[in-house]
Amino acid sequence: MALHVILGAGTTGTATARLLADSGDRVRLVSRRGSGPDHPAIERVAADAGDTDRLTELARGADTLVNCAMPPYDRWPELWPPLAASVLTAAERTGAGYVMLGNLYGYGPVDGPFTEDLPMRPTTAKGGVRAKMWEDALAAHEAGRARVTEVRASDFVGAGAGSLFNFLVTASVLAGEPAVYPGSVAVPHAWSYTGDVARALAAAALDDRSWGRAWHVPSASEASVREVAVRLAEVTDSPAPRVEAMTDDEFSAFAAENPFLAEVAEMLYLYDRPCRVDSTDAERILGLKPTSLDDALTEMAGAPLSV
Q1: Which pLDDT value is given to residue 260?
Q2: Which of 34, 163, 247, 289 is deepest in the core (most CB within 10 A)?
Q3: Quick one: DSSP state of residue 239?
Q4: 253: how many CB neighbours lie within 10 A of its CB?
Q5: Residue 197, Cα to own-chain centre: how many angstroms?
Q6: In the chain, where do the E strands start and end?
Q7: Distance of alpha carbon 120 from its chain centroid, rounded?
Q8: Tens digit of pLDDT for each residue in 100-120?
Q9: Residue 42 forms part of a structural domain
Q10: Is residue 307 situated within a structural domain?
Q11: Mean local confidence (pLDDT), 262-281
Q12: Is 106:120 a contact under the CB 8 Å cutoff?
């Protein structure tokens, strides 16, 4: 049986662990608290992935090292670089294939669909962090020091999804209350179902064709925020939703009270223009297909979050 070491026991890390374990492989799920599902093929380990020597020990003999870890959003520039360097070093030392969970930030603003061959042109601090992580990993791959790939997702939907929509809109729609959202609520936007993200990570870990490039998760939908709210209300028999874009004053008030929302400010370009994601290669080569938006929203309704 192959061994996969997964970093991070959040929604996506746990789902990926289950998929790989259910396929007949062994999984070592590493998180600071040693949490995770109770499964005979999943070993839960409490460790700090920033401890390179400890992580190297845990990854020794593994086929893949899958990074689903996520530092606090408001501390990315401080915490991501040393963590990313630790994981990449462990992959280089052990020969484990390195599968990164990424997003669209590194591309910067894009006119037209996001495609995997676009260059990294970030215009924000967090985008710069993500771009540097990929550039360092790709350099290691091209130098023959590691095998690397990255799976890139857009905003999450699904149970426990850590997305602005789930933080700011889901509970309000279910309660029949008005909601506000930063950025436009009327432009098309790609949504990644957490289960599809996990399937993409597992597929990349198991397919030798994945190395040396990035892959986009097939989108559950490219509906606007308002359209997603309407579908959420319809699949849960909730009242017709009222969702409006935040005014500048509303956003400033929210951001003053919450460091998470304050950090969203530099990423608002992703919400003020159409965000379309091309996943042709992932569907054709890795055999991935998107879950329906209705199914993703039905699941998310059972686990709304608040920021």
Answers
A1: 85
A2: 163
A3: P
A4: 13
A5: 7
A6: 3-7, 26-31, 42-46, 64-67, 97-102, 148-152, 155-157, 179-181, 191-193, 214-216, 243-245
A7: 18
A8: 999 999 999 999 999 999 999
A9: yes
A10: no
A11: 95
A12: yes
| Structure-token pair, residue 304 | 């709304």
Q: How many Cβ atoms sit within 10 Å of the Cβ of residue 158? A: 28
Give the Cα separation of 242 and 229 in Å (integer).
8
Round to whole Å and give the CA distance between 67 and 103: 13
Domain span at 72: 3-154+193-219+279-285
Instruction: Quote the CA–CA distance of 150 and 141 in Å, as a whole number.
Output: 12
Tens-digit pLDDT profile for residues 155-209: 999 999 999 999 999 999 999 999 999 999 999 999 999 999 999 999 999 999 9
Distance of alpha carbon 77 from alpha carbon 73, whole angstroms: 9
CA angle (58, 66, 157) in 5-degree steps: 140
Q: For residues 186 and 226, is the Cβ–Cβ distance under 8 A?
A: yes
> How many residues appear in the chain?
307
**Token pair recorded at residue 270:** 């992703």
